[in-house]
Amino acid sequence: MINELANAEWFKSSRSANASECVEVAFVGERAHIVGVRDSKDPTGPALVFSGEQWDRFLGSGLCG
Question: What's the whole-model pTM score?
Answer without folding.
Answer: 0.76
